[in-house]
Write a structure and sequence with these properties.
Helix content: over 70%
Number of helices: 7
Order of helices and strands: HHHHHHH
Shape: globular
Oligomer: single chain
Structural class: mainly alpha
Distance between the termini: 64 Å
Largest sheet: none
Number of domains: 1
Number of strands: 0
Length: 164
């Protein structure tokens, strides 16, 4: 077997890293509900970060968005699929957006998680349209919208039921 050229070896390492990130540590390979598995990874990652300042959390969101845009787009191109089911870094980001700035209590986490999953599946306008943006941007953008919807619904719930 001929030796792999150095640039091909480098590309395979970068592709492997992109897959690792895009699948949220391979949670996207779950045989059952990979999007939910990715969302659970999002909860686990959000937990230690939820104590950050708002600017620290915003920086985390931007970093995760850019990393997800790159890795999801790279893996999607490599697989020849606009939005592969194994790509779940968008769900990780969506959970972050759904919970940012809210109290990190069990009820908020559960309802935020469930609302995010609902909006991610239903994709109310403009989330469904955002999904059609090119490459990794479209993969990430619809989940940001779903997370925003969930976050806003939770905030309205707090206005209606302040003790919630």
């Amino acid at each position: 077997m001929p030796a792999m050229p150095p640039h091909a070896r480098d590309a395979s390492v970068v592709d492997g890293f992109a897959r690792f990130v895009a699948t949220a540590f391979f949670a996207g390979h779950s045989p059952v509900a990979p999007g939910t598995a990715g969302s659970l990874v999002g909860l686990l990652l959000f937990w230690p970060l939820q104590g950050l300042s708002l600017s620290g959390m915003a920086a985390s969101l931007v970093f995760l968005f850019v990393l997800g845009w790159w890795s999801a787009g790279r893996l999607a191109r490599r697989l020849g699929d606009h939005d592969p089911g194994m790509v779940v870094i968008d769900e990780v980001l969506g959970v972050f957006v759904a919970l940012i700035g809210l109290p990190f209590t069990p009820w908020v986490v559960v309802f935020g998680f469930l609302l995010f999953r609902l909006f991610d599946v239903v994709k109310p306008y403009p989330a469904g349209a955002l999904e059609h943006l090119p490459g990794g941007l479209g993969i990430m953008a619809d989940d940001v919208a779903a997370g925003l919807y969930a976050n806003l619904v939770m905030r309205v719930a707090f206005l209606v039921w302040p003790a919630a």
